[in-house]
Design goal:
Chain lengths: 111, 118
């Protein structure tokens, strides 16, 4: 199973919005509403930011939102803040045999 | 406090075996699936495998890269999940994280480092 495709890097200024895409296939992203997004700061464990495509765990700011269209999922971060600078990974369920696949990760730089 | 703590990492020779543990606290472990995810230095996250709950027959699934070499088990009486790694290769060198929940990973441990080298 190939990794989901994410841009290697995105950037934005404080207060702006950025969107990170995550492209898969009809066997993973397009086939299930089980896309999740993780934030990882250097040297730290990943943190769940979005699950089931659009749901936000308690404690995650509402500046973070998720969506999906066809085989592409997206994470949008509005009102960028310095602490949002991190690596972001998408993950999708891909069925009984493949189970789960991650994206390659996107480095977000807050200018 | 909801917490996962991995242990058991270390240096092992190619072809060797290692068993990682993941101790859970602060949530209903028996009702949660448990995942193992790894990350090689400077690389992205790679899903390794999952064990589901008793209600889902403790079903396991693995990434193609580890299938047949790794197994996952759990002991609901001690709130611990395990990753048994056999026939280890240099490319298995990584930080190994355990994480809870079924179709996503909401609680993560801090990870334990596995180095496969002669």
């Amino acid at each position: 199973q190939s990794a989901l495709t994410q841009p290697r890097s995105v950037s934005g200024s404080p207060g702006q919005s950025v969107t990170i895409s995550c492209t898969g296939t009809s066997s993973d992203v397009g086939g299930y509403n089980y896309v999740s997004w993780y934030q990882q700061h250097p040297g730290k464990a990943p943190k769940l930011m979005i699950y089931d495509v659009t749901k936000r765990p308690s404690g995650v700011p509402d500046r973070f939102s998720g969506s999906k269209s066809g085989n592409t999922a997206s994470l949008t971060i509005s009102g960028l803040q310095a602490e949002d600078e991190a690596d972001y990974y998408c993950c999708s369920y891909a069925g009984t045999y493949t189970s789960f696949v991650f994206g390659g990760g996107t480095k977000l730089t807050v200018l | 406090e909801v917490q996962l703590v991995e242990s058991g990492g270390g240096l092992v020779q190619p072809g060797g075996s290692l068993k990682l543990s993941c101790a859970a606290s602060g949530f209903t472990f028996s009702g949660s699936a448990m995942h193992w995810v790894r990350q090689a230095s400077g690389k992205g996250l790679e899903w390794v495998g999952r064990i589901r709950s008793k209600a889902n027959n403790y079903a396991t699934a693995f990434a193609a890269s580890v299938k047949g070499r790794f197994t996952i088990s759990r002991d609901d009486s001690t709130n611990t999940a395990y990753l048994q790694m056999n026939s280890l290769k240099a490319e298995d060198t990584a930080v190994y994280y355990c994480a809870s929940r079924d179709y996503y990973m909401d609680v993560w441990g801090k990870g334990t480092t596995v180095t496969v080298s002669s």
